[in-house]
Write a structure and sequence with these properties.
Elements (H helix, E strand, L loop, with lengths): L1 E4 L4 H13 L4 E7 L23 E7 L7 H5 L5 E5 L6 H10 L3 E6 L10 H6 L2 E5 L13 H12 L3 E5 L4 H10 L3 E4 L1 H4 L8
Parallel strand pairs: 1-2, 1-8, 2-3, 3-4, 4-5, 5-6, 6-7, 7-8
Length: about 200
């Protein structure tokens, strides 16, 4: 399980990063939203240069218009992976190729209502991770959408890489998505409320 940070205030991000380090967490999933793709407006990747992120493995999840335009700003933080929503992505192939040119790992993300076949065949073969949202994009504490279970099963038939589920995660929903074929989960509200055992 990877904790999610989605914040509009840099001070809140810094406090959460410090809390993760104190709990000896070495991975974090940071949601970046431009207020256009969804209503929420978060910090930008460049803001994180003011925070000590040393030794943290960062996944950037880009909930933005044209995620390709945000790649260079993310790369400066040396992230583990950069994951972009496909719904407003100009070219999935170019998104992945651009990240690969920086020696990075690229992933693609789907909103709950976006079908698996929205991912282009070539992109599906090259993506290191596919993220499936189980809640509406840009929300906190929303209920888990059961439709993601069938999407996981469908994706598993055509994709052999990592399948990451984001949204509505707790120990019960974790079990459901793992049984369906997911390989990773990320948790926001449940983790920060202290509902998650830090050793999981």
């Amino acid at each position: 399980m990877t904790p999610i940070i989605m914040e509009a205030d840099l001070g809140a991000v810094a406090a959460k990063m410090l809390a993760l380090k104190e709990k000896q967490r070495d991975k974090v999933h940071i949601d970046i939203s431009d207020g256009l793709f969804c209503d929420y407006l978060s910090i930008a990747p460049s803001d994180l240069q003011e925070i000590d992120t040393a030794n943290m493995k960062i996944d950037f999840h880009l909930l933005v218009d044209d995620p390709t335009e945000w790649i260079e700003e993310c790369i400066a933080l040396n992230p583990r992976r950069i994951i972009g929503q496909v719904e407003r992505m100009g070219s999935q192939a170019i998104f992945i190729k651009t990240i690969e040119s920086y020696k990075g790992e690229a992933g693609l993300a789907l909103e709950i209502g976006t079908p698996v076949d929205a991912i282009e065949k070539e992109a599906l073969q090259k993506a290191k991770v596919i993220l499936l949202l189980a809640v509406p994009s840009g929300t906190h504490g929303s209920d888990f959408d059961e439709r993601v279970i069938e999407k996981i099963k469908e994706l598993k038939k055509v994709y052999q890489g990592a399948i990451l589920i984001d949204g509505g995660m707790n120990k019960t929903t974790q079990q459901k998505v793992m049984e369906a074929g997911a390989t990773e989960i990320a948790a926001n509200s449940a983790y920060w409320r202290g509902e998650w055992d830090t050793n999981i």
